[in-house]
Amino acid sequence: MLHLFTSESVSEGHPDKVCDQISDAILDAYLEIDKNARVACETFATTGLVMIGGEITTTVEAKAKVEPSKIARQVITDIGYTKSEYKFDAGSCGIISTIDTQSPDIAMGVDSGGAGDQGMMFGYACNETKELMPLPIILAHHLVQRLTYIRKKELKKMPYLRPDAKSQVTVEYDENNKAIRVHTIVIAAQHDPNVKKEKIKSDVIEHVIKKVIPANLFDKKTIIHVNPTGKFVTGGPYGDTGLTGRKIIVDTYGGKAPHGGGAFSGKDPSKVDRSAAYAARHIAKNVVAAKLASECLIQLSYAIGVAEPVSIMVDTHGTGVMSDSKLAEIIKKEIDCTPRGIIKRLDLRRPIYRKTSNYGHFGRNEKEFTWEKLDIVPLLKKLVK
After folding, report:
1. CA distance linking residue 318 with residue 328, whole number of Å
2. What is the pLDDT of residue 114?
3. Is 114 helix (H, G, I), strand (E, B) or coil?
4. Residue 381 — φ and ψ, nearest 5°?
5. pLDDT tens digits along 228-245
6. Which of 126, 183, 200, 379 is least buried, going by the fewest C-beta atoms within 10 A?
7. What is the pLDDT of residues 166-196, one digit of tens each?
8. Is the predicted pLDDT of residue 353 greater than 80, yes or no?
9. Considering only CA atoms, which of 58, 2, 370, 368 is closest in space to residue 173?
């Protein structure tokens, strides 16, 4: 029986993503100086104002050198909010920064190698795309990436583009859960005033959709909505308040897999919300790449101050070459899922996080994304023989 599935993405100019980027840029600045910095940084943005808060424990040198307000202005500039007509721009927005140290009650558990908090994290992979990710979220990311590329590199094609944008892709699947076509595409692209809706739509189809959506999945029946309200001039933090960590489904699997609820941006790797989610993706991707399953969901859970996971769950949705419980036993025995083990294996104490804050934390091939490596495929194949 045919069925539909939808995922969305947002551009770097989306107000929540502005905040994610600022938080991760501040994290990177501290890690650049102090790789053991404990950082939990949150950002709030609205018309003409950015507020930065959090708990950060680091060296005296890092405290003296890192300037959160300066970093925030640079991020906002890089995104493209540089004109006063946007009602939010790098040169004139007010910035308030209030940062304290990490709670000693939390630090006590982390110092001993334990998790920085309780909670559950999920990782997922499937053989639907070369990235071993669900197709709808991959296409949604690529659409807004393409809009940003045009705005920054090929502006002559669409000279009216502004930084904010969203995409949404609905894919139609057959009874075997195989993608057969793109059913609907929704794109909201912020633009200058006095540009006709029809012009924007034709440009988006020509320069964005046709460049991103595979021809074999795009047909005359594909429904396309571009700025369906009629215009999208007011955007960014002027159009909507932004907050770090509010796009957790965009950051992960587009709704195709569960989410533990913990956001990533602004958190150093001692926070299992981030590091264990990366580890779970790493394991799940390697399971699928090793052809031990065509689909794999991993859940890790932790107790604050305790190093070993409370539980490890595997669900291959009936596609595994062995039982899920047996695969979970192998993972528990052979792969170190303590916070320290994850940090070491994935080399997470590096200033790599600002790049992760846009267009998804998973399904990327940049060298910084160590959790996307297929380096434990040989081990997994050996263990299941």
Report:
1. 14
2. 73
3. coil
4. -65, -40
5. 999 999 999 999 999 999
6. 379
7. 999 999 999 999 999 999 999 999 999 999 9
8. yes
9. 2
Structure-token match 């793109």, residue found: 182
Q: Residue 325 is which amino acid?
A: S
What's the confidence (pLDDT) of residue 240? 95
**Which pLDDT does position 384 carry in this prediction?**
77
Sequence-ordered list of residues with C-beta below 8 angstroms from that of 225, at least 6 positions apart, any chain: 184, 185, 186, 187
In contact, 198 and 224? CB cutoff 8 Å: no
Tokens of 127: 């053989």
Amino acid at 16: D
End-to-end Cα, the chain, rounded Å: 36
pLDDT above 90 covers a percentage of the chain that reads 91
pLDDT over 70 for what percent of the chain? 97
Residue 146: what residue type? R
Give the separation between CA 267 and CA 275, rounded to whole angstroms. Answer: 9
Task: Please name the residue ranges forming H helices in the chain.
Answer: 15-33, 60-65, 68-79, 104-111, 135-153, 197-204, 210-212, 236-239, 248-251, 272-289, 324-334, 339-346, 377-383
Show the tokens assigned to 364.
Answer: 């990327």
